[in-house]
Amino acid sequence: MKRLMIATLLSIAMSASHAGDASQASNPSNAIGDMSATVVAGSVLSVAVTGSVVVASVKEIGDDLEILLEGASDASTATVRLSGKAAKGLSVAAGTVVQVTAVSTGHLLVASGKVLAFIPNEAGKALLHHSRVEG
Amino acid sequence: MKRLLICLLFAAGCLAPRAQAGQTCEEKPVTVQDAVKALDLAERSFKLLDESGAQVALISRAGQDLSKYGLRFSHMAIVWRDHPEGRWTVVHELNDCGSANSALYNEGLGNFFLNDMYRYEAEIAIPGEAVQQRLAQQLASRTPVRLHQKRYNMLSYAFSTQYQNSNQWVLENYAAAASPQGQVETREEAQKWLRSARFRPITVEVNAATRLGARMFRANVAFDDHPFDRRMAGQIDTVTTSAIVRFMKDQDPATRVFLVPAL
Is the pLDDT of residue B169 over 90? Predict the structure, then answer.
């Protein structure tokens, strides 16, 4: 009986939530805007000719993470810097294969189907920023 | 036993958000497909806004499936061309995840859609020139902060200042811009003017058991701001994006509404 009550209340709570907007909840850590990365050396374009690159090394610089990417087919390299926020909880090690997906606003760095970082071009930079309004 | 039951109920409540379609409090990795769709929608919205010649618009997203309530979009924001942060910045109220509070945020259009959308489409409602001018002046002032109530309620009553949902914050800012100059400075004044201008909220039917469940499990849902008789009848009058767009069209024949479709 009690178990039934718990199940009923749970389903009730969930149905109530659908009457509102769960997308009004904010979880900024979920946003790719925090995953913006910058290229500090080399060019992702030339490294990613084949669409996939390999992580050659990972270096921690303060809170940030600097990842050296190597082209799969040649010796070209690019160094990508992720801010501490973007690097948080990221498990990237030397040898990880990273796909580079080009979109009109920049490049997505993808490992195992998940986005590691986004390198915005000029158009992309205009689409991504996030700040709290101080009241 | 009672204590155990409360603990179990509490645990069940904590699991509830994970089972729903909207955003949860969990950190979820972004999938490539979602990232590509969100950035593409952001770019198309940016382009439409640029080509419209507008300086301020109201933009809605489809964060979850509300079709059983006859609704297509769930959450609305103000988008402003000349924001100091850069071209086309979204200003909106967000419920701080898992809490009963909200805050105002400035974001890029990319961030706005990178939020676990139900459908990657947007609706953009552009007020007439005069209202846009007033909105732009307001956005550069303290008005948005003054009209913000941080006690958040997803189903807040449209004519109470006890709580506020995200769409209500947009509506009250619109009221300040669309009413005669100097008439709306506070939330009370905004709601007084909205009543006089015949703003019609959307009525959601929420029965007693559902209301009880929601109060027990969710920090961001409350019903005590609704008039007693309406509440007991399960009639919850709240502010949705569709109610705002309908009101804008009634108020201002110069209002233009565009759909940025899902591809």
Answer: yes
